[in-house]
């Protein structure tokens, strides 16, 4: 395997559009997103990201005539849309100025926002009340569609800031009791800070992204059979540029929990009620979640060395089968000389690494593609903890050595193209 020192080194420090608008699990580092676009996405190429997340890869492809993003998570839809919202900085400045006038003068909230179904308390009573006032005030403003998108994304980030979720948390972990007691965040202030960041970023931009951006909430496992999807409507695509989840949501990243916390507030904004979703429903739509397609599932054997009959093996098998179903749909929507550019990793699952790079290569090879590049990149610029505690919420088991499991130390870029394209040759690995 070719091991890169770091293909994006010269781009370190550069950001994609509104890159820090909201923390999102497993974001592709900015410099990697920019480097992949400069190497594999010609300016006239249409791009599809079927797992768009916070939209960083699409946000790097600003010169493309068409960007289509799909994600099962409504929060991903919001963040990706917000990154492409064209907003006049003067309007944004006026909204920020309005915050300091509204704070302290807003009337009693007519309703309370926040999670209703959660047993664990994620907000103090006063924060819930202030968040409800903020939402009520925002709903009273006359905002355009683009302004609403940007404000909703900033509010979502502010909601996480004022919750009891740990700032550097890998999964949704709570502050300890003592920290919760001392924690007195101000939702108005956090919203103003988040919007000020957007204002600074937008004021720096010399030009808006070219072309169109289409983002849909949807399940990429059904691409092969959904004739009505935006992928069928706008495809075929020149490049699929994506970073899928590196494992199923039970054993790796749970996108649902943290996302639904933010959405439980944002969905009270006018025009955003379609974003309400429980953590469970988001996670069950993720790869390896509730079944959508046929058995038998893939054997994890060549890609993972754990015990065949274990519950972990069944989860991995389900996840890999879903992954294969996505690849099946993608090849139908790639133009004849199109490329699939995947950022993957070998995550530890049940003590063994899952070789997702090899599985990706095999999925495309079975469908007439060949590997043109495989490049490993150390995770030097991603805020990923080297060890995580797999019993994060269980205080009784947290201290044990077996609770600490290694995460990933590198990401792998895999580029595949159809073998029938003239001039495409297998790259020596
Ligand atoms: C590694 S993240 C993508 C991160 C993104 N590239 C970024 O930089 O923010 C993987 C994404 O896949 C999404 N996902 C998982 N299963 C999905 C499915 N079946 N259909 C569509 N999206 C899915 C998750 O919600 C998550 O946002």
UniProtKB/TrEMBL annotation:
Pfam families: N6_N4_Mtase. It catalyses: a 2'-deoxycytidine in DNA + S-adenosyl-L-methionine = an N(4)-methyl-2'-deoxycytidine in DNA + S-adenosyl-L-homocysteine + H(+); a 2'-deoxyadenosine in DNA + S-adenosyl-L-methionine = an N(6)-methyl-2'-deoxyadenosine in DNA + S-adenosyl-L-homocysteine + H(+). Belongs to the N(4)/N(6)-methyltransferase family. N(4) subfamily. One of its GO terms (molecular function) is methyltransferase activity. InterPro entries: DNA_methylase_N4/N6, MeTrfase_CN4_CS, SAM-dependent_MTases_sf. This is DNA methyltransferase. Gene3D superfamilies: Vaccinia Virus protein VP39. Residues 22-73 form the DNA methylase N-4/N-6 domain. It comes from the Bacteria. Keywords: DNA-binding, Methyltransferase, Restriction system, S-adenosyl-L-methionine, Transferase. GO terms for biological process: methylation.
């Amino acid at each position: 395997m070719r091991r890169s020192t770091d293909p994006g080194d010269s781009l370190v420090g550069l950001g994609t559009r509104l890159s820090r608008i909201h923390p999102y699990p497993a974001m592709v580092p900015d410099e990697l997103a920019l480097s992949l676009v400069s190497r594999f996405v010609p300016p006239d190429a249409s791009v599809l990201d079927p797992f768009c997340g916070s939209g960083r890869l699409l946000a790097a492809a600003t010169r493309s005539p068409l960007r289509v993003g799909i994600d099962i998570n409504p929060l991903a839809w919001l963040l990706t849309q917000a990154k492409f919202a064209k907003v006049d900085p003067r309007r944004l400045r006026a909204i920020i100025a309005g915050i300091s006038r509204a704070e302290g003068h807003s009337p009693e909230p007519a309703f309370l926002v926040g999670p209703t179904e959660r047993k664990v308390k994620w907000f103090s009573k006063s924060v819930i009340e202030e968040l409800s006032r903020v939402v009520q005030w925002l709903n009273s403003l006359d905002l355009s569609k683009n302004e609403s998108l940007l404000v909703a994304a900033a509010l979502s980030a502010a909601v996480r800031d004022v919750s009891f979720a740990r700032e550097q948390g890998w999964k949704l972990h709570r502050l300890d009791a003592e920290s919760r007691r001392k924690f007195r965040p101000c939702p108005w202030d956090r919203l103003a800070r988040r919007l000020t960041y957007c204002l600074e970023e937008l004021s720096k931009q010399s030009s808006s992204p070219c072309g169109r951006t289409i983002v849909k909430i949807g399940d990429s496992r059904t691409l092969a059979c959904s004739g009505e999807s935006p992928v069928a409507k706008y495809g075929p695509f020149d490049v699929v540029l994506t970073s899928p989840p590196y494992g199923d949501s039970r054993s790796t990243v749970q996108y649902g929990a943290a996302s639904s916390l933010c959405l439980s507030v944002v969905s009270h904004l006018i025009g955003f009620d379609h974003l309400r979703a429980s953590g469970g429903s988001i996670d069950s739509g993720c790869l390896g979640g509730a079944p959508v397609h046929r058995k038998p599932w893939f054997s994890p054997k060549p890609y993972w060395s754990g015990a065949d009959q274990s519950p972990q093996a069944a989860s991995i098998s389900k996840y890999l089968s879903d992954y294969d179903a996505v690849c099946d749909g993608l090849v139908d929507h790639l133009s004849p000389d199109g490329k699939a550019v995947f950022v993957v990793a070998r995550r530890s699952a049940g003590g063994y690494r899952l070789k997702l790079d090899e599985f990706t290569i095999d999925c495309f090879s079975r469908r007439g593609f060949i590997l043109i590049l495989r490049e490993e990149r150390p995770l030097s610029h991603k805020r990923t903890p080297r060890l995580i505690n797999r019993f994060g919420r269980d205080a009784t088991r947290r201290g044990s050595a077996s609770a600490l499991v290694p995460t990933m130390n590198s990401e792998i870029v895999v580029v595949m193209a159809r073998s029938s394209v003239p001039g495409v040759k297998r790259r020596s690995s």
